[in-house]
Structures are given as structure tokens and as C-alpha cells.
Amino acid sequence: MMKKQILVSMLLGLTMVAQAGNIDQFKKRKATVYLDKAEMCLEDNRCYPVLIGKTTPKGVFDLNIVKTHHRGYGGDVMKFKEEGNFMFAVHRVWTLKPEERRMERIASSRVKDRIMTNGCINVTNDVYEQLKAYFVLEVV
């Protein structure tokens, strides 16, 4: 009976060590935005169209979820860079100005249609929800 308890304890310890290793891997999950294609690719090799701007900064950034009460953002955004008093963020497609046709533009196959933001990266709701499991954003 004692050997069985020791074996179970060892297995539990190994499981905890393995899980801790996975947590570090999890925190390194990276999404990549390709400005020349106006698309975001996740680690599962699936790519999605995004809205970007001419001023969307290139680099590798930490993603941080920030709560917001501003209308049109769904309650939170994913901040990745600040310059002065401007915050660059990944957020759900902002649709409060219907004349901008953002939902139509993000669905366009033409890259030039998807270059229209002030530097933030707009994604569809489903992509935003997937992105919550990512901690690093690379913009190239």
C-alpha cells in the first residue's frame, strides 16, 4: 500500500511540473500581423483578415487586456503599445460610424480596403475571443 501511495505522489508531482511547463509555453503564444497582407495569423496556422492603419507600429509587443467604457469596443481592448497619449490596441471591429463600412471592408479580399484605422488593429468578434489566449503580438 505504501509503494502505491509513493507512486501516486510521484505521478502527481510530475503532472504538476509538466503543467507548470505548459503555463510558460502558454504565455509565449504569439499572434502575428502581416501589414502587407492586412491579416493576422494565429499559432494554429489559421489567418484572418484585419483592419489596420498606415501608422500601425511594427515590432514585438506584449498583449494586455484593458477594460474600457467607451462605446463600440465591447468592454475591453488588447493594448500593445502606447505613444504619448495614444494607445495602440487590438479590438473588435468598431462600427459606430456606419459610413466607414468596417465590417464590409474587413471581409474584402483587397488589402487596400482593409487599411483604414488610426493605427489600431480591428478583428472580428470570433478572432478577438481566440486572441484572448495569446500574450504576444508581432507586427511585421
TrEMBL record:
What UniProt keywords are attached to this protein's entry? Signal
The signal peptide, as residue positions, is 1-20
Question: Does Signal show up as a keyword for this record?
Answer: yes
Give the protein name, as stated in the record: Murein L,D-transpeptidase
